[in-house]
Amino acid sequence: MGKVTGFMEYARLEEGYEPVDTRLKNYKEFVIGLNVEQAKQQGARCMDCGTPFCNSGCPVNNIIPDFNDLVYRGGDTDWKHAIAVLHSTNNFPEFTGRICPAPCEAACTLNVNDDAVGIKSIEHAIIDRAWSEGWVQPRPPKAGTGKTVAIVGSGPAGLAAAQQLARVGHAVTVFEKNDRVGGLLRYGIPDFKMEKSHIDRRVAQMEAEGVVFRTGVMVAHLPEGSKVTNWAKDVVTADELMQQFDAVLLAGGAEQSRDLPVPGRDLAGIHFAMEFLPQQNKLNAGDKLKAQLRADGKHVIVIGGGDTGSDCVGTSNRHGAKSVTQFELMAQPPEVEDRPMTWPYWPIKLRTSSSHEEGCEREFAIATKEFVGGEGKDKGKVVGVKTVRVEWTNGKMVEVPGTEQVLKADLVLLAMGFVSPVAAIVDAFGVTKDARGNAKATTDFHGGYRTNVAKVFAAGDMRRGQSLVVWAIREGRQAARSVDEFLMGESELPR
Asked: What residue ranges of the chain are covered by domains with CATH 3.50.50.60?
């Protein structure tokens, strides 16, 4: 805990943002983190609640009261201990400290009738200081085991598993189909939410720990016409990996986007969010594209009210879109949750992102009926979206008569989530899939994350479907323990 009376003396202190007109001029991070004194004050608010629900609310089970207390104490040694505590459960707090929605804060005991402790901002402060002070160093193994592991996918699940396995002495090779490491962290999350230098320095650390990264290598073949981002130059087969490695972990992201098969879907100007977002990240990295999808001067409609849709909003505004409108099929949630009913679970409430604040019209309880094509020089191009208002009755969607309208649109971005990982990869290994198309595997303590195929494991989005970065890290760590146990007969890796 922090200070005994701290939660009564100090208010929650939010991280700051650079002004909208400043941040829209570039793709750099604009969050202003807490300084040492501010973090200390926020840590003081951690109360002696007895049962720290924040620990179980966090998917990686961060030991939150401990690092809050260490930051509150405030000495350099305390901060060093704080990053050690944080790293004991989370390999990459610089990722989660930036892009995690913080379910730990929803579970904070103080959140029952007050503002939660700013756990995410404290985590952000700890890891940023740790990097700046040089406290984050490679931890190579003392000796090798002679065992080899292939990890397919270099997103947070693959990276977490790779680091854990390398540190106990296994020879780990990570295969990434795109040209840079990071998976959806690299080519899904906009740079203004998380700059890619954070990935690069972790990659350097992991290479010093013995991890080998092979980028631009696709495992199996994508079907013709696939919209999944793929900048691979080489292909390896599942059989080759099975022959060359003692264990294989499938840790790719859920990249199969949910489509919207309504009339006019084949018109030009309608794209998945994951066709749009990776291109800007690639340009930010210094690469060139022949024909980038851009929103300059366009009326943009984003279909889907989640984080990916919000990312499309922020990117469109930085392009200089004429207008941006975001659709959400569900009714507008309440601005304030019913805490006695929802705590300590994740509440349904209206969430306004920094991208929304930069300029966006939000439409709730609205469904798309048809994409409208143009005439003359605009023939074959989308020029509008025909919509209808909907109501939800007993869990069923009902259209409201007389509410149809056509909204102008030059660019439509489909951001309705992801239905499954890339099926071609799962099928190439002969792995059984569940009803949602994910690799089927349990999370049991012994034998967890194993698929039906000998020595093939699955974790992260590949096993659980579309989820959060923090869940991917958890699954990567737990899968690493299962792989280690499979290879060595036992494992001392944490679960």
From this structure: 148-256+418-488, 259-414
Whole-number Å distance between alpha carbons of 205 and 211: 9
Question: Does this model's pTM top 0.70?
Answer: yes
What fold is seen in the domain 5-133?
Answer: Fumarate Reductase Iron-sulfur Protein; Chain B, domain 2 (1.10.1060)
Mean pLDDT of 383-390: 98
Judging by beta carbons within 10 Å of its beta carbon (0-12, 13-18, 19+), is residue 9 exposed, middle or buried?
Answer: exposed
Neighbours of 467 (CB within 10 A): 18
With a CB cutoff of 8 Å and minimum separation 6, the contacts of 376 are none
Beta strands in 80-187 (DSSP E): 148-152, 171-176
- In tens, the pLDDT along 316-371 reads 999 999 999 999 999 999 999 999 899 999 999 999 999 999 999 999 999 999 99
Q: Are 390 and 397 in contact (CB under 8 A)?
A: yes
Q: In this predicted structure, what is the pLDDT of residue 48?
A: 87
Q: What is the rounded CA–CA span in Å between residue 46 and residue 44? A: 6
Of the candidates 52, 205, 217, the one whose C-alpha atom is nearest the C-alpha of residue 127 is 205
CATH of the structural domain 259-414, one choice from 3.30.465.10, 3.40.640.10, 3.50.50.60, 3.20.20.100? 3.50.50.60
Determine the longest span between alpha carbons in the chain, in angstroms.
72
The answer to whether 411 touches 301, Cβ cutoff 8 Å, is yes
- With 90 as the cut, is the pLDDT of residue 409 above it? yes
Phi then psi dihedrals of residue 17, to 5 deg: -125, 145
Helix, coil or strand: residue 363: strand
* Residue pair 246/147 in contact by the 8 Å Cβ criterion: yes
Task: Name, in order, each residue with C-beta under 8 angstroms of 65's C-beta and a sequence gap of 6 or more.
Answer: 1, 46, 52, 54, 55
What pLDDT shows up at residue 52?
94
CATH number of 148-256+418-488: 3.50.50.60
Where does CATH 1.10.1060.10 sit in the chain?
A: 5-133
3-state secondary structure of 193: coil
Whether 491 and 481 have beta carbons less than 8 Å apart is answered as yes
Number of Cβ within a 10 Å radius of residue 397: 12
